[in-house]
Specification:
This protein is mainly alpha-helical. The chain has helices at residues 26-43, 46-49, 51-64, 68-75, 77-95; strands spanning 2-3, 10-11. Strands 1-2 form a two-stranded antiparallel ribbon. β1 (2-3) and β2 (10-11) form a beta hairpin.
Length: 107
Protein backbone atom coordinates (compact mmCIF):
# COMPACT_ATOMS: atom_id res chain seq x y z
CA UNK A 1 0.00 0.00 0.00
CA UNK A 2 1.11 3.52 -0.81
CA UNK A 3 -0.14 6.98 0.05
CA UNK A 4 -1.43 9.15 -2.79
CA UNK A 5 0.70 12.25 -3.32
CA UNK A 6 -2.43 14.35 -3.97
CA UNK A 7 -5.11 13.20 -1.49
CA UNK A 8 -2.84 11.25 0.93
CA UNK A 9 -5.22 8.25 0.97
CA UNK A 10 -3.85 4.76 0.83
CA UNK A 11 -4.10 2.86 -2.44
CA UNK A 12 -2.69 -0.23 -4.10
CA UNK A 13 -0.52 0.64 -7.09
CA UNK A 14 -1.14 -1.16 -10.35
CA UNK A 15 0.93 -4.28 -10.85
CA UNK A 16 1.89 -2.87 -14.28
CA UNK A 17 3.11 0.46 -12.85
CA UNK A 18 4.60 -0.25 -9.42
CA UNK A 19 6.07 3.28 -9.23
CA UNK A 20 2.57 4.76 -9.33
CA UNK A 21 2.29 7.62 -6.84
CA UNK A 22 -1.22 8.92 -7.61
CA UNK A 23 -4.37 6.96 -6.80
CA UNK A 24 -6.98 6.26 -9.46
CA UNK A 25 -9.59 8.71 -8.13
CA UNK A 26 -10.74 11.07 -10.89
CA UNK A 27 -9.97 14.19 -8.80
CA UNK A 28 -6.39 13.06 -8.19
CA UNK A 29 -5.84 12.13 -11.83
CA UNK A 30 -7.14 15.54 -12.96
CA UNK A 31 -4.98 17.34 -10.40
CA UNK A 32 -1.91 15.39 -11.57
CA UNK A 33 -2.69 16.26 -15.19
CA UNK A 34 -3.02 19.94 -14.22
CA UNK A 35 0.31 19.89 -12.35
CA UNK A 36 2.04 18.19 -15.28
CA UNK A 37 0.64 20.70 -17.78
CA UNK A 38 1.66 23.66 -15.61
CA UNK A 39 5.22 22.33 -15.24
CA UNK A 40 5.44 21.60 -18.96
CA UNK A 41 4.38 25.16 -19.84
CA UNK A 42 7.03 26.53 -17.43
CA UNK A 43 9.71 24.41 -19.12
CA UNK A 44 8.56 25.26 -22.67
CA UNK A 45 7.81 28.96 -22.43
CA UNK A 46 8.23 29.84 -26.09
CA UNK A 47 6.28 26.85 -27.46
CA UNK A 48 3.00 28.75 -27.91
CA UNK A 49 4.27 32.31 -27.83
CA UNK A 50 6.17 32.63 -31.05
CA UNK A 51 4.67 31.20 -34.22
CA UNK A 52 7.73 32.41 -36.09
CA UNK A 53 9.80 29.74 -34.30
CA UNK A 54 7.46 27.05 -35.61
CA UNK A 55 7.57 28.47 -39.14
CA UNK A 56 11.35 28.65 -39.04
CA UNK A 57 11.65 25.08 -37.76
CA UNK A 58 9.34 23.88 -40.55
CA UNK A 59 11.33 25.79 -43.14
CA UNK A 60 14.60 24.27 -41.93
CA UNK A 61 13.05 20.78 -41.97
CA UNK A 62 11.83 21.29 -45.54
CA UNK A 63 15.32 22.41 -46.58
CA UNK A 64 16.83 19.28 -45.01
CA UNK A 65 14.19 17.01 -46.58
CA UNK A 66 13.56 18.53 -50.02
CA UNK A 67 12.11 15.42 -51.67
CA UNK A 68 9.91 14.25 -48.79
CA UNK A 69 6.58 15.38 -50.24
CA UNK A 70 7.46 14.21 -53.74
CA UNK A 71 8.31 10.74 -52.38
CA UNK A 72 5.22 10.69 -50.19
CA UNK A 73 2.90 11.50 -53.10
CA UNK A 74 4.59 8.85 -55.22
CA UNK A 75 4.14 6.29 -52.45
CA UNK A 76 0.46 7.24 -51.84
CA UNK A 77 -1.20 7.89 -55.23
CA UNK A 78 -4.71 7.42 -53.82
CA UNK A 79 -4.22 10.39 -51.49
CA UNK A 80 -2.93 12.43 -54.38
CA UNK A 81 -6.11 11.74 -56.34
CA UNK A 82 -8.31 12.43 -53.32
CA UNK A 83 -6.61 15.79 -52.82
CA UNK A 84 -6.90 16.60 -56.52
CA UNK A 85 -10.68 16.02 -56.41
CA UNK A 86 -11.01 18.10 -53.26
CA UNK A 87 -9.11 21.01 -54.81
CA UNK A 88 -11.24 20.87 -57.96
CA UNK A 89 -14.46 21.03 -55.94
CA UNK A 90 -13.08 23.82 -53.77
CA UNK A 91 -12.02 25.91 -56.76
CA UNK A 92 -15.33 25.33 -58.54
CA UNK A 93 -17.20 26.39 -55.42
CA UNK A 94 -15.07 29.51 -54.96
CA UNK A 95 -15.64 30.61 -58.59
CA UNK A 96 -19.40 30.72 -58.16
CA UNK A 97 -20.70 34.15 -57.18
CA UNK A 98 -22.12 34.21 -53.67
CA UNK A 99 -25.88 34.09 -53.35
CA UNK A 100 -27.18 37.54 -52.53
CA UNK A 101 -29.84 37.73 -49.87
CA UNK A 102 -32.58 40.13 -50.84
CA UNK A 103 -35.17 41.05 -48.31
CA UNK A 104 -38.81 41.03 -49.45
CA UNK A 105 -39.31 44.30 -47.56
CA UNK A 106 -37.30 46.21 -50.15
CA UNK A 107 -39.76 45.63 -52.97
Amino acid sequence: MKNCVICHRQFSPSKYTPRQSICMRKECQNKQKQIYATNWRKDNLDYFKNRQNNREASRIWRLRNPDYYKKYRKKHPELKMKNREYVRKYRKKSRQPPMAYVSKDIF
